[in-house]
Amino acid sequence: MADLMRAIRDxxxxxxxxxxxxxxxxxxxxxxxYSIPLDLPYFNNKNDRIATWxxxxxxxxxxxxxxRSDIEAYNAWVEDFIVKSNPERIEQTKNNIKIVGQQKVAGxxxxxxxxxxxxxxxxxxRRLNRENPASFGRFEAVILDMDLTGNEKHIKxxxxxxxxxxxxRVDYAPIDRLTGLYNTVERFRELTLDEYAKSAGMKMSDAxxxxxxxxxxxxxxEFCGIPYQFHFARKRKLNDxxxxxxxxxxxxxxxxxxxxxxxxxxxxxxxxxxxxxxxxIRDYMKMLKDPREGRKFLxxxxxxxxxxxxxxxxxxxxxxxxxxxxxxxxQQAAVITxxxxxxxxxxxxxxxxxxxTEETDKRIKEAANREQAANVLExxxxxxxxxxxxxxxxLPKEQIETICENADVLLSVLQEIRMAAQAxxxxxxx
Length: 430
Prior knowledge:
The chain is an alpha+beta fold. It is built from 17 helices and 5 strands.
């Protein structure tokens, strides 16, 4: 690791005229900005976005940790992930730096070179450096002279303070943000929710909602048999569906029914990924809560969720039998994600879920149409009864003639409706 304070003394790191306002520990002040050679800083492996990719690395490398002994190799590896996460945004920032330099916002690094804020800008500078080493060889950042070795809590608080101080954080995918919140507050318990909210400048009510979504995301992954594999949620773009599911479940007062709804929805979410997933899930949840069809639909969908769980376990058992030994957690997760991709949308199980959904939706709409017909007639009758007949005495001849014509049409329509209704009554007597 670098020693940036020594590098300052040796003249390798240079102080600029720039400053950046930061708030740490309730104290806000201006910090000087330094110009740092690109080979000294390194990406923060605890950064919310980077952590998601690191989890995926463990997933694809049988639980192996990322090697950070070679900082340049590590930086190159993380850079590739950051570019893949949002190539359009990277290109935009890269072009902006090429034109106007780093004047917008300086980064923030610790004295050992760990980047607390500015991972995207650092990525762009590394890529520009390979194109033009003479012009883009340094990273402008505040250097915090703090010994935080092993103090992940304070590192996370610094990261949140720095990141949320900026007005624009579009470089973060919503799932990455949820992952960071879950890991920080629930999984590793580095911060309490109150500490997280204060560090991020969030209202406690908003923080509770986001944590609720994050917990729901992990519950979904556990249902699938792939706990902590947040990259799967990112790949499926589940942020908006999770938001809707969380909202619907929150309104359900019956604890047992809420759990059943959750499991049924998880099964459907795992199987149906194509198209507008958010709209599909929103319609799906409405069906579960329908007063006529909801109970039967829920029972049928729970059966499918059970079938899905059994299917995934069977695949894991088959793979273990083939290997001749129990699979590691990473191997199990690999088998399950492959099977989920195979089952999604075009499998018999997915088609069964979709068919049940479509048939239930049809019955609900038909019932709504029947109710609408009755309600329209009831409303029309009430409105017609309230017409003051005396008013006809004051109307001109033309208007009265028009009223008579409309009344004749109405009588004809009502006669047709009456005959159709009577026919149905006759059929049911038989």
